[in-house]
Design a protein that fits this description.
The chain is globular and about 55 Å long. The strands form two sheets. The chain has an eight-stranded mixed beta sheet, with helices on both faces. Strands 2-12-13-11-10 form a five-stranded mixed beta sheet. It has twelve helices and 13 strands. Strand 4, helix 5 and strand 5 form a beta-alpha-beta unit.
Length: 362
């Protein structure tokens, strides 16, 4: 395998060659479009979860008490409660890590979700990049991570590439004196959560696993996620948090989403997503100019095609929002990301894409 390249460290205002703060919601904000830009599962939250959240509103006069939700997350992963920290979405966790974890040489594996690097830069760090290559299928090569990197951030499955790295490859990054942060925000959308490292927290040195409940359950507006880490790291992160960081409705949602029936529903949704993704890939296979990165394992796919900016604009004019790829380090203007949707939506999208590609400059 040809190894990825390590970029020079960069930090400070004006040095960003891409907009690290651009996210998929910008594509749909204030517009009436079919949303393929945001990776939140369509048709969520389910009615039963809305009812659980609504029931929590009667207790809003009291300060949030996260003990029951923390216990539920711990049981869900078979971990002690002291290895769990509830956060206002995974994004807060990245900020806490940047504030609380002391590092001399932090490295982020790209292309991936850009908030970890943005948070580290905001905390004053010069951030190194390991850039995974399309020619290698955007697969993680642990040997490409510098030996002296003492904080490594990697996504699994990775946003936006949708690549699922082998758990053992990610685990091999762990060593004494190094913190390895694995963003598993989309792991519950993978059937069987294969390749998750959540069960190795407290076993592998320096391992930190982040999870989000906003994607599968449609709770992006509620902001709920959690950190799984050793007791010392959890304590450090908790000290960096403000008081009562997670609202009572979000805590109620976290507890409800860890119940056995909810986990069974999420597992069924993961199987459905896999089937819907296969349908999307089959439809994209009809376009010779479209190259799909992968193999894809998440609820989205990354594609390369000529004239991507014009294609994105053409799709928008036909009622579809898709995510631009040029704001992810390691990609460029020829990349787009499509969220997986139901087959009927995918068929409508494929028809619009065919129309656009017929008009797009070659």
């Amino acid at each position: 395998m040809t190894g990825p390249a390590l970029s020079a460290p960069r930090t400070g205002p004006g040095t960003e060659e891409v907009d690290l703060r651009h996210h998929g919601d910008a594509e749909v904000r204030g517009a009436d479009l079919t949303d393929l830009a945001v990776n939140v599962r369509a048709g969520t939250p389910p009615a039963w979860l809305k009812a659980e959240i609504a029931a929590s509103l009667d207790g809003l006069a009291a300060y949030p008490d996260g003990r029951a939700a923390r216990r539920a997350v711990a049981v869900r992963h078979g971990l002690p409660e002291r290895r769990v920290l509830l956060t206002a979405g995974a994004a807060e966790a990245f900020v806490l890590l940047a504030r609380a974890v002391r590092a001399r040489r932090p490295v982020v594996v790209h292309p991936q979700f850009t908030e970890p690097e943005a948070a580290l830069r905001d905390a004053g760090y010069a951030v190194g990049r390991v850039l995974l290559a399309e020619r290698d299928g955007f697969r993680l090569d642990p040997a490409a991570v510098p030996d002296d990197a003492d904080l490594v951030v990697v996504g699994n499955p990775t946003n936006p590439t949708s690549v699922l790295h082998p758990a053992d490859a990610v685990a091999s990054l762990a060593r004494p004196g190094r913190t390895v942060v694995v963003d598993e925000a989309f792991m519950d959308a993978v059937p069987g959560e294969r390749e998750s490292l959540a069960g190795r927290v407290g076993v592998l040195p320096g391992l930190v696993v982040l999870r989000s409940l906003t994607k599968t359950w449609g709770l992006a507006g509620l902001r709920i996620g959690y950190v799984l880490a050793d007791e010392g790291t959890v304590a450090e992160l908790e000290r960096a948090q403000p008081l009562w960081p997670v609202s009572s409705p979000a805590l109620a949602a976290a507890e409800a989403c860890c119940a056995p029936a909810a986990l069974a529903e999420a597992a069924a949704a993961a199987e459905e997503i896999a089937a819907d993704r296969a349908h999307l890939l089959a439809r994209l296979g009809a376009f010779p100019e479209v190259t799909v990165a992968g193999p894809a394992a998440g609820p989205f796919v990354l594609v390369r095609l000529p004239g991507a900016a014009a294609v994105r604009a053409g799709l928008r004019a036909r009622g579809f929002a898709v995510r631009r790829g040029d704001t992810f380090p390691g990609l460029g203007p020829q990349w787009l990301r499509f969220a997986v949707r139901d087959r009927a939506t995918t068929d409508r999208f494929a028809a619009a894409l065919a129309d656009v590609l017929g008009d797009a400059p070659r």
